Every structure is written in structure tokens, then in C-alpha cells.
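Researcher: I'd like a structural prediction for the single chain below. Treat it as a standalone chain; there are no partners to consider.
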Amino acid sequence: MKIVFRNKGSIDPRSITTFGVSSKESDSAIGYFGTGLKYAIAILLREGCSVDIFTGGQHLKFGTSEQRVRVDDFTFVTMNDEPLSFTTELGKNWQTWQAIRELWCNCLDEKGEAFSSEYFDDTPGDDETVILVSGRAAADVWSQRDTIMLSGTPVFSTEHVDIHQGRSNHIYYKGVRILDLSRPSMYTYNLKGNIDLTEDRTMKSPGLATWYAAKGIATLSDRSLLINTLTAGKDWFENGLDFGCVHPHEDFVGIVQQMARTQTPGLNRSAASCARFDSNELLDDLPRMAISPVDNLRLKKAIGFAKSIGFAVDEYEIVVIEHLGEGVLGRAANDKIYLSKIVFMQGTKMVAGTLIEEFIHLRHKLHDETRSMQNFLFDSLVSLGEQLTGEPL
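Model: Treating it as a single chain, here is the predicted structure.
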């Protein structure tokens, strides 16, 4: 099987033998470093593939030649049996798929086509370029070509990103794979605009991927997509979507605010902030719950215990709410301590612990899972030990 890259126009052989030469007619060309074709040829030869270029009526056949430089042997790339000025060590860290991507991108830049053929025997015209690649390594990559170049129609198209149906392990730009994800994405994202790429066509600032995706998502009003992406768990790329400095569409704002009001589990905090929603403002609108005499006794015992060890929790109004969100036992806001009804089912000790935690949030302005909160708790533990032993450390 041969992989064929064919486009109109011819290649100046100097662009193959000279680094830093990149001459593209299209302003939207993907490549511009002037090194990709050399890298692709070197990598494919290193992987045991054959490379032939037909251009301007010429047949350029690439091979290798062993030569010694000082005390080491190198495999030089040859063109029509003449050694070039680079070896198969070029692109040492590149993989075969990147070489195929490079040839494919060059072909697209020239508005050409790429396909495979068992018996390609067309005679290339004088005003066209045909690159033929064959070999097991190239064929293996070609069988997975959908992971290199994005195809199909997006389900949503925005100014900043096209969103395709289906999960992916990659981010694309102009339809070209530019970033491998550490976590899969629920949808497939093709970034638009001006993205800076490195010489091997990877995203120069990978951290911007979540921001570009969020920038597009914030303009959408599809409830299903928003719920999926804005509540994605930590195993998904969407969990890290960054909506900072994003200007959301009013439909996005409305849906996010509704999700926040109903305490939708796992709602992206950045999205909630983007929608200018403060869930604390709604706490006082939630109906207060009357508690049973038994739960009232638990509450009094918990308050008394907390005060006995130095936490005057009843200095703040204590409000019982039926539900504060999945897994949330208490909240500290509006100079009040809010308790979920479920905390009473877990016993007086849990009620006391929740009261103390929310008291610390209000009194000392400390937040969950922070070093300052940790230090405060250890300091309090040591101080309590001093009181019990009757002497300072």
C-alpha cells in the first residue's frame, strides 16, 4: 500500500535541502518553520519506509548512506543517491504519525489531497507534486489517520472552537492534532483563531486549550452539552474548563444560574463565577426546617460542647436547611451557620464538628483544604492539649 499526497504546483528542490525555507501561497497555511518536510523524510526513512517525490517533471528518490563523522557513524539522507546535509537523527523525538501529519499538512496548505492506493501508477504532471510513502510503520499510522486529522461536521460551531460529537484524547487546530490530552474529553474540540505552535506543530501554550474550549462553550445554549461539560468529573478534560475573562451568552448565564440554584452536583465553579452567580445570596431564600425535639437536644449539646473547647458557635445565627447540596453538611455565609438536615442523622459529634468548621470559616476567614486552615486546626489541637495538661509547651 502507498500513501499518496498530491497537490497542484511543484516543489523547489532547494526547499528540501535547505533549512528555514518555507514558501506557502495560502495565508492560512498551517506550517511556516521550513523544517517539516526534512523532518518527515528523515523520520520515515529511519522507520524503514520509502519516500519518493515527483515534482516539476522530476523524480526525487530518497534513501540513506552510512558515513563516518570523526569517530561516529551516521545515516545520512540521500536524494537521488546524493547525500544531503542532514541525517536520520533529525526529529529524534518525533513519532511516525507526526511525519505523516507533516506531509498531510503541507498537502492541505497547497489545497491538495491525501489518500491510500494499492497500485498508484499515475504519471504526475509537470505542474503538480506527488509524494509517495510506503512501509509498515506508515501503513499502521494511516490506519489510525482519524486521530491525526479531524473529519466530519461539528455539532456546534462558534467563533473560537468547533465542537464535534464523540470523546477524544486530542485537541485539534485547523483540523490538525496539536495536543495530546492527559484526560479524555467528552467532546472533540477544534480550536480556531490564532494559536501559536511549536516547530513540531504542537500547541505552544497547552494551558490555553481549556480556555479556548470554554470561550466557545460560553456562547452556547444547548442544555444537554452544558450540563455534560459543566459537571464533568475529574477524569475528564472538561473538568478543568476555565471561564475566566469569558463573555458568556445570556442563555449560558440562565442555564448556569438555574443549575446553581438547584445545587447541581459538581457544577464548574469558574462557570458559576462567569455567570455572576453567588449561591450564598440564595441561602436565605431557602425554606428553614423545623427540627424534632431530639434533634434540638443534639444541637444544644453540640453547641455546648463547641463552646466548652473555645468555639463560641452560637455567636452566629444557626439555620437548618433541608438540603444544601450533595455531600454538603454545612455552609458558612451571610454571617450565619447553615446546617443541612442530614447532619443530624449522623449524630451529635458530626453536628458539633460541622458547627466548629463553619464557625472557623466565619470568624477566621479560612477556607477548606488550605494550608492556613490546616495550621489553624493543629494549633487549636495543641492549645487544647495544653488546657488538658494544665501547662504550656
